[in-house]
Amino acid sequence: MQPEQLSELVDPKNTFLLEEIGGLDGLFASLGTDKIKGLSSSQVQANQERYGPNVLPEPNRKSFLQFVWLALQEKTLIVLCVAGFIELGIGIYRFQFATGSEKDQNALIDGLAIIVCILIVVLTSSVTDYRKQASFQALSELGKAMNKAHAIRDGLKVTIPTTELVVGDIVHIHVGDVVMADGVMIEGHELCCDESAMTGEPEQIQKNKDDPFLLSGTKVLNGTGIMLVIATGVNSLNGKSFMSLQVEAQETPLQHKLGKIANLVAKVAFTAAVSIFGLLLALYLGLHGTNEPSSELANDLIKLFILSVTIIVMLVPEGLPFAVTLALANATMKMFKDNNLVRNLASCETMGNATTICSDKTGTLTMNKMTVVKGVVAMQPFSLSDIKLVQELKLKHPDLLRLIAHSVNINSTAAPVTQKDGKTKMEGNKTEIAILDFFASFGHLVQESRSIANTIQVQPFSSQQKKMSTLVQLPASDTVFGTVEKWLFVKGASEVLLRQTQRVLLPDGIVAITPEKRQELERVIDQMASQALRTIGCAIIPVTNETSIDEIDLSQLCLVGLFGIEDPLRPEVPPAVKQCQTAGIVVRMVTGDSVPTARAIAKGCGILTDGIVMEGPDFRQLSQDELDKVLPKLQVLARSSPLDKQILVTNLKRLGETVAVTGDGTNDAPALSAADVGFAMGIAGTEVAKEAADIILMDDNFASLVKSVIWGRCVYDAIRKFLQFQLTVNLSAVTITLVTALYTTIGPKKKPESVLTAIQLLWVNVIINTFAALAISSDDPHPRLLDRKPSKKDESVINTNMIRMIIGQASYQVLICLLIYFFGPGIINPPQDKLYSESGTDLITGTLIFNTFICCQIFCQINARSLDKELNVFRGIHRNPVFLGVLVFTIAIQILMTMFGGIVFKIDPDGLSPMYWGISLAFGSVSLLVGFLVRLIPDYKKPEYEPVIVKLPSPEKDDDNTIAARPSVTQRSTFLDRNPRMQVDHYAVDPRLVSAARLQIAQRDRHRSSTCATDR
Question: Are strands 634-638 and 612-615 parallel, antiparallel or unpaired?
């Protein structure tokens, strides 16, 4: 069959066409698949060449030139381009066509310099965005490589990447899987799929002979099954849908905040530039009128226009998007090394300000290395230290133990899988594997039990019922009851099964559970739970005529065993939980275990302190008012369902919390989607859970989740550091430009010339700020980031400490540059050939000011490494080679620029002498001292108010049973006027309480050093 014919089976679903080609038998014959052994190795290669690989089409990605075009759409750059080309046009005229004094051999330099600066900005932005796209594409490919499928090939069940599936493969699917290719169901047990992503229909679709088609990209919500792959890759329904998919960049919450700041600054910059242009133009025309030669007048006006545009360029923090991109890209790649695979870029920064973490237990807080350590089999207790009783049971009653082993081996989704190296490994639920391994140690293997069983019906594990059931038919000779062939095997939460069972299996047979035996079993369960063991129960029912699980009377359940399963706590979890609590993050444990087990584990890892432990069924019955009271104290939610987890997450968010949640099951997807940051388990997680998550924990470890908190805070701080640095540079540069331009316009020169020329300002904005963004974003996180509380959602990106530092640093830079500007020429006494400069002063002074300004920014980068009161800004700098490399490179290019860039940058062509370089570096280094002094400024603390609450009695009743008259408004006003320190929220004040209230206030004041509180 051709790929097009196979696609017609599912698009749309066509059972008539399936019948025409001979049903499943016809498909098996057409695709060369053996019903039992699956595809052979040679047939796999042939089918892949014929029908194509199972690789979905890549979403359309932008080319490098498209990124260049997008960068050129920035409004400020457009204005700068206009100014640059105008300047270039005038330069061409003066260089080529002008005569006499108007002719200038260097006239092209200004225009070309502006164009080169624009090209540098555009190329830097484009290269960064293009590399970011490539990096995230690589991470996406890695995430796809983690997806596995269980296929039958050459008669063996093998685990392969989903990308290696081919048409004709026989594949096993389970609850939580995302169907990886179009297929037809061979067999299924309660198989139910969510096809809303493909069809738009929200109902669950039951798979049966009327609808045996499984669509790629849909989710398995219930049951298990086996399917035959009929379409892969571009020929699958999901592949066709992906053909038109576009990848659009998402704006993160922090980028949204920064966007608001940038828009506000842009408006201020535009207003300031227009105002400055208008003021300088008015002053210039007022002083010169139109008496100047037309060429000189035009040249001055163009310079004035370029200066105004440059002010806009300097004020607008254009480096912010670049800094955000660098910080996020750096964090995302390094988070991968810390076992955090980021799927949603926004989650990096959001996780840094998480206020609560709702964590699963199994595999996240524990090691997910399950071992049966004690329990009861046929009412015979055992432990690993004393296994003799089970061994005796095997010797004395081998048929009985074999029946119990059958009930465990058959009623399980775990299965042995052959790896590529030929070794067999059990894969599936770790709890089930622990019990299977326990019975395998007595010689009862899974393969043997399943080879003799005929499975009639399976009800997979349900988080609502807390159990799994399988109806099977066994050979009558293989059980302890020779006449019974059908059995219902049930496995689930021990206390749930114990409540439902009325009988128990003994070595001598099945007997009714007496109250004493029930209490004994309850004590066993509680004892194991108190030792942090997960307790699982197993039960059986002999079946006669029933053909469906729903027809069986579950009151006849017979308890055959209880198993205490140990899952050791990860040793790194208690310190990680302590770190979260220090960081102001509340850690809550959400588990399906019983309350005693959950309490023991929560205490062991430090989650449970003085909080509340609740069960899921009780939790979901709470009203909203009750939830508001319980949630702040809730630390452990036991016997919880995914619905309970979703209720917990949504209500915590309603109360203003930033919530992170972990999940591994299909039913966890709503909670993962509802959370601010969803973490899926990379090992134990289903494909549905991974699809709903923002970050995948590749090692399923809570400690890795804590690392994502540190990285989130590191990203947040890196961007704030650059914002502080950028605004300092912008404020000081614009102030110096404005003051010197005004002075030269109204001063002796009568020309609008700034000491920092347009080319110099662009050098600062393009080169210095770009490398500063690279340096500042390169700092790795430090554990002390967890010593502070999370930032609130409505908290400003710029705090008080940053404002102080910006004002302090900018004020110093403005002061030192203006002092050199006004007093430098008298001290330097420049020679005659260096008296004129386009910077409004002599060449040596102008060069010294520009170099000093750059040196200030170099040391300001170092100062920006600390946002708080940390005085040592050099902490850890020796461990950051990128930061040190950028500093050395910045100084190097500044030296080269002063040596060889005289004509272009309007500075002294002879460069600066070592003495002036020493002066520049000395003035620049004072920025560190300024930062030190600013950090010593104490924070202003608002006075704390301690209310005194006076409880008022109910109004008294007179003898005639009427309420006594309350004080009038006038009386109440007089009372409050006479007692200004006392405010009472009751509208009726009993005057007899005045003296008691005064005494209470006086007693309180004697125990306080401050009396500034307003009392109630």
Answer: parallel
Highest mean pLDDT among 132-141, 676-685, 743-752: 676-685
Quick one: which H or E segment has residue 486? strand 486-493
pLDDT digits (tens, 9 = 90+) for 835-846: 666 667 888 999
Q: DSSP characters for 985-998?
A: -SS---GGGHHHHH
Residue 563 and residue 538 in contact, taking contact as beta carbons nearer than 8 Å: yes
Q: Whole-angstrom Cα distance, residue 536 to residue 494? A: 5
Cα radius of gyration rounded to whole Å, the chain: 38
| The three-state (H, E, C) secondary structure of 817-876, written as one string | HHHHHHHHHHHHCCCHHHCCCCCCCCHHHHHHHHHHHHHHHHHHHHHCCCCCCCCCCCCC
Please return the burial class of 279, using the count of CB atoms within 10 Å of its CB with bins 0-12, 13-18 and 19+: middle
Q: CA of 297: how far to CAs of 109, 289, 303, 836, 877, in Å?
A: 19, 10, 10, 19, 52
Give 217's Cβ-side CA count (13 Å radius). Answer: 21
Q: How many residues does the chain have?
A: 1016
Which residues, in sequence order, are CB contacts of 582 under 8 Å at separation 6+? 786, 787
DSSP letters spanning 53-103: -S-PPPPB---HHHHHHHHTT-HHHHHHHHHHHHHHHHHHIIIII--GGG-
Q: Taken in order 863, 865, 871, 877, is the CA torsion positive or negative?
A: negative
Alpha-carbon distance of 917 to 750, in angstroms, equals 31
Residue 462 burial class via C-beta count within 10 angstroms: exposed 0-12, middle 13-18, buried 19 and up: middle
Contact (CB, 8 A) for 877 and 863: no
Strand pairing class (371-377; 558-566): antiparallel
pLDDT confidence of residue 955:
47
**pLDDT (0 to 100) of residue 944:** 54
Are 589 and 637 spatial neighbours (Cβ–Cβ below 8 Å)? yes
Provide the 8-state DSSP code for 560: E
Token pair belonging to 429: 């639920």
Of 629, 797, 624, the closest CA to residue 715 belongs to 797
- 21 token code pair: 């080609």
CA distances from 82 to 95, 96, 297, 301 (A): 20, 21, 19, 14
H runs (alpha helix) in 181-293? 196-199, 237-242, 253-288
* Whether pTM exceeds 0.90: no
CA distance readout (Å), 869 to 570, 728, 866, 875, 937: 36, 18, 8, 13, 9
- The predicted model gives 569-574 an average pLDDT of 89
The span from the CA of 719 to the CA of 252, in Å, is 13
Question: Sign of the CA dihedral 89, 95, 97, 101?
Answer: positive
Copy the structure tokens of residue 227. 């399917």
Residue listed under structure tokens 């912010």: 320
What type of residue sits at position 195?
A: E
Q: How far apart are CA 179 and CA 182, in angstroms?
A: 7
Burial bucket for residue 951 (CB in 10 Å: 0-12, 13-18, 19+): exposed
Measured CA to CA, the distance from residue 36 to residue 33 in angstroms comes to 9
Residue 768 tokens, joined: 């210095």
At residue 177, φ and ψ (nearest 5 deg) are: -75, 150
Catalytic residue (one of 182, 338, 360, 567)? 360
DSSP string, 199-217: H---SEEEPSSSS-EE-TT
Strand partners, 536: 493, 563
Mean pLDDT score, 36-54: 89
SS3 of the chain: helix, strand, coil, percent, to 5: 55, 15, 30
DSSP 784: G
Clarify whether 360 is annotated catalytic.
Answer: yes
pLDDT of 994 > 60? The answer is: no
Distance between CA atoms of 636 and 624, rounded to whole angstroms? 19
